[in-house]
Amino acid sequence: MTGAARPGPAAAREVAIVAFAQTRHRRATPELSEAEMLLPVLREVLDRAGLRPGEAGFTCSGSSDYLAGRPFSFTMTLDTVGAWPPVAESHVEADGAWALHEAWVKILTGEADTALVYAHGTSSAGDLRDVLTRQLDPYCTAPLWPDPVALAALQAQALIDAGETDEDALARIAVRSRTDAGTNPYAQLRAPVPAGDYVVRPLRTGDCPPVGDGAAAVVLAAGDTARRMCARPAWIRGMDHRVEPHALGVRDLTDSVSTRLAAERAGAFDAPADTAELHAPFTSQEVVLRKALRLDDGVAVNPSGGPLAANPVMAAGLIRLGEAAARIHRGDSDRALAHATSGPCLQQNLVAVLEGPGRGARS
Q1: Alpha helix positions (H), the chain
Q2: Can you give the pLDDT of all 363 residues of the chain as single tens digits?
Q3: In which order are the strands placed within the sheet that holds 89-92?
């Protein structure tokens, strides 16, 4: 159910993102529980879609117990959904972008007509760099405790050594992203910041994402239901996700084969896009993704500011899909690519193609 339409019932269904909402992302929210942080977002997105609490045909969430520091923490947020009367609900221990993929499949198969998808992350609750080492191979890599910044620095240095970028070019990516965030009231950093000192050479402070807390939610709907809910639905024309080998030593860190393959399967190369929301937490990773997705200078990349301006872990990928959809809702975009990633050095990647009304489904 990825790429071009397949024969059968799934091929007959069009699915769109019809509403998007997010928090105003902050460095820390110690005064709020995850449920308290999420509740206003869910109310807003349901209001925009014209749904009552519990009315969505399917609910799917994305988060990580490692961030919260307690098992099954995601069950606490179900109070905000309205779990009584009982609702059809699922959860992924991953970024909310993967929850959106599950909900999309649910609608494609005809098991639901609408879906509520949400994600949340309190990155400030612990030492994020230590927490994210749990994503590593537990036998050979994790015992060495390389954190995500150190691994991203290895990737950045490989790109520099290959002649694909340099430190000045990376600094320009940071300035552009945070300047664009100036018009985004939800961004955590909304103005250019100095490049700063090296965090791990060659990455400076400006090349790295901020640590912050936040949540986001979208509503999906099928066919005429989507058209009733939204004047300009963001139709999902294709979506796919792929994963690289777990062992970093067998990967070319200057390329992202999984992103390219996911993009091919999603139909990203069938027609040019005008917008791309890339989940590139580090400036060097935007270089890799631009190459994998064949993006030229005519594409507006991360006009929201991207994860360099706000990077709530487990919600940042869903936000990329939401921001791309919101540009279509407003009429600022007709065809957008949205990308989400998980794991060190762009290990797992999801690509979605979104189109506005009038573009038509691909044959």
Answers
A1: 34-49, 65-68, 78-81, 96-108, 128-131, 148-161, 167-180, 223-229, 257-266, 283-293, 316-330
A2: 444 443 334 456 999 999 999 999 999 999 998 999 999 999 999 999 999 999 999 999 999 988 877 777 788 888 888 877 788 899 999 999 999 999 999 999 999 999 999 999 999 988 999 999 989 999 989 999 999 999 999 999 999 999 999 999 999 999 999 999 999 999 999 887 788 999 999 999 999 999 999 999 999 999 999 999 999 999 999 999 999 998 999 999 999 999 999 999 999 999 999 999 999 999 999 999 999 999 999 999 999 999 999 999 999 999 999 999 999 999 999 999 999 999 999 999 999 999 999 765 443
A3: 89-92, 58-62, 114-122, 213-222, 15-22, 234-243, 348-355, 335-342, 275-277, 300-301
Residue 233 DSSP SS3: coil
CB burial of residue 234 (10 Å; 0-12, 13-18, 19+): buried
Nearest to 348 by CA among 148, 119, 94: 94
Strand partners, 276: 301, 337
**273 contacts 360 by C-beta, under 8 angstroms:** no
DSSP-H helix ranges across 188-282 = 223-229, 257-266
Number of separate helices (H) and strands (E) present in the chain: 11, 12
- The whole model's pTM is what? 0.94
- Residue 191: is it exposed, middle or buried by C-beta count within 10 angstroms (0-12/13-18/19+)? exposed
* Phi, psi torsion values for 5, nearest 5 degrees: -60, 140
How far, in Å, CA of 156 to CA of 300, rounded? Answer: 23
Q: Which amino acid is at 316?
A: A
CA neighbor of 208 nearest in space, from 223, 219, 193 = 193
CA distance 188 to 166: 26
> Residues 272, 297: contact at Cβ < 8 Å?
no
DSSP 26: B
Residues in the chain: 363
Cα 135–Cα 165–Cα 260 angle in degrees, nearest 5 = 55
Strands (E) located in 273-316: 275-277, 300-301
